[in-house]
Design a protein that fits this description.
alpha+beta, Immunoglobulin-like, 3 domains, 5-stranded mixed sheet, 4-stranded mixed sheet
């Protein structure tokens, strides 16, 4: 597979890809596997925002950050699929369309295999498939969790898998040596759409890679269309397990992996570094890898970062891992009607980027600025021509009905003040939206017409702005004079204990009237007594 031709299938977002799964596909790999819900965007976006410094620094800083991300999953535990669970996992991660239903994808022999729930015996190619440790288990002492890590365990033809044994990957110079063998496999198609090219896997004496040789006498070489797949698997293994108990440095693994990280040999030997770089560049990320990565996340909670972001290999393994093509900042975007967002794209040789949209009625694009026009879906493409070959990346855009700010309300605020108090807004301000949603917000407060130096009723204005929409509300406050305390009675002093205050007038009148009545009564009584005595004589 030539470099120019192979790069036509650089990795797209899983959402955009799923829209075209039944179509013919520019590489010699399949155009459809079982898609899964997870996506690169949901898995990586927050991590990228929090780890820009590590991405810029590269080296051990980036390795540490990536190791933590791809080792820890949602529940804080390692969720690698069990070894027995790999059989059912392959049904989701490695299936391919066939005339009688889904078949299992074989990376060594290219055969169509009906799904099997357990291992089977074999004597020749095409008898069955089995679970292949692409990094042989003897290289890391069968340590867990690497022993059943779905990312590097792939389904392969049983016979070819057995002959591969634990030999190092490499490029074969001759299959005529003792033990050498060639394993051709046919092209496969479904409904006239080719999904599997004719190919060959080989075992034989090794070639030098960029002037560097291996000490091994036999190496295993997968077909060209899968070399990049295995290179990115090996880079994942180096980052996740390098330097730990699962480091694949035993037996022939030492020809590829090292136990320590250096800038010149980042958990891989010089030979391994050049071999993986060559395969990573010559066979770029395919649709198959991206959709398998989605399935892996669904099944065991992590992803291979070098499938989602092939360029990250540069910061860890060196400039030989540079890839040709277009990079885009987002591969999926959700907007509301009339909302805009700008994404960026760059070409590997700084060629100008051409932006196009599949549906201008839904989303327009102008130099990377995407503007949502109406509800629906559109594909935004950023393309560049490099050495007479067009490369592109796409961003799938979903436009939803706009939800806008509609009104503002306030409650619980203080409304009565005294002259001289300091005014402050202490209520709860609530923003209301057209879909019925609400949220508490911090408003702008206009109290310019409030005068706290004199009595009166004043109006306070509250405002809140979101996007192009501004809403406001208000409430009234009262400012009044402070109440005057009444004058207390004069206290009784110790040196004048009999002192009494002045009597009220009505008490005085009552005393006078009472005294007069008493005098009259006494006089009348005396008169009657005297008169009685006089009559008795």
């Amino acid at each position: 597979m030539s470099i120019k031709r192979s790069f036509l299938c650089v990795f797209l977002s899983s959402l955009a890809l799923s829209l075209s799964l039944g179509a013919a596909f520019a590489t010699n790999e399949m155009s459809k596997v079982n898609a899964a819900t997870p996506s690169p965007e949901t898995y990586w976006n927050t991590w990228i925002s929090n780890n820009q410094a590590a991405l810029n620094a590269g080296g051990t800083t980036l390795v540490t950050a990536l190791k933590q991300k791809i080792t820890q999953v949602a529940d804080g535990k390692d969720n690698t699929v069990s070894y027995n669970g790999l059989w059912s996992a392959y049904k989701e991660s490695d299936s391919v369309p066939g005339s009688s239903g889904a078949y299992i994808w074989d990376l060594y022999g290219g055969f169509q295999y009906a799904y099997q729930s357990s291992g089977k015996s074999y004597s020749k190619e095409g008898d069955c498939y089995n679970r292949e440790h692409s990094i042989p288990k003897s290289w890391f002492g069968e340590a867990k969790p690497a022993y059943s890590d779905l990312i590097h365990l792939v389904p392969t033809d049983g016979k070819v898998n057995g002959v591969r044994s634990n030999y190092t990957f490499g490029e074969v110079q001759s299959t005529s040596v003792s033990g050498g063998y060639s394993y051709p496999f046919p092209a496969r198609s479904y409904n006239s759409v080719q999904y599997q090219a004719a190919g060959v896997s080989k075992l034989g004496s090794p070639k030098a890679i960029d002037g560097t040789t291996t000490s091994q006498t036999l190496v295993f070489e997968p077909d060209d269309q899968y070399k990049g797949d295995f290179a990115r698997i090996y880079m994942y293994f180096a980052v996740r397990y390098g330097g730990g108990s699962c480091a694949a440095t035993k037996t022939q693994g030492a020809s590829i992996f090292t136990s320590t990280f250096t800038n010149s040999n980042p958990y891989v030997t010089d030979y391994g570094k050049k071999l993986l770089a060559k395969w990573h560049v010559q066979d770029p990320v395919s649709e198959k890898e991206t959709i398998r990565n989605n399935a892996v996340e669904k099944l065991q909670g992590n992803r291979n970062p070098f499938v989602d972001f092939p360029e990250w290999a540069n910061g860890i393994f060196g400039s030989d891992y540079s890839t040709v093509g277009v990079r885009i900042s987002k591969t999926a975007l959700t907007l509301l009607e009339n909302q805009s967002e700008t994404i960026t794209a760059t070409a590997s040789d700084s060629s100008p980027i051409t932006w196009t949209t599949s549906n201008a009625a839904v989303a327009e694009v102008n130099n990377g600025k995407i503007t949502a026009k109406s509800v629906g879906n559109a594909i935004i493409r950023a393309s560049a021509t490099i050495d007479e070959v067009e490369y592109y990346k796409e961003c799938s855009v979903t436009v939803n009905k706009a939800v806008q700010l509609s009104e503002l309300s306030t409650s619980g605020q203080k409304t009565e003040y005294y002259i001289g108090d300091k005014f402050s807004y202490d209520g709860t301000c609530t923003a209301h939206y057209t879909n019925g949603a609400t949220k508490t917000v911090v408003p702008s407060v206009d109290s310019s017409k409030v005068d706290m130096t004199k009595e009166g009723e004043y109006h306070v204005n509250l405002g809140y702005t979101e996007g192009d929409v501004h809403v406001s509300c208000g409430y009234d406050i009262i400012v009044k004079a402070k109440p005057v305390d009444p004058t207390p009675d004069e206290p009784v002093t110790p040196d004048n204990p009999h002192h009494q205050g002045n009597l009220p007038l009505w008490v005085i009148v009552l005393i006078i009237v009472g005294g007069f009545v008493l005098i009259v009564g006494i006089a009348l009584a005396v008169f009657l007594i005297v008169r009685k005595k006089h009559k008795s004589k």
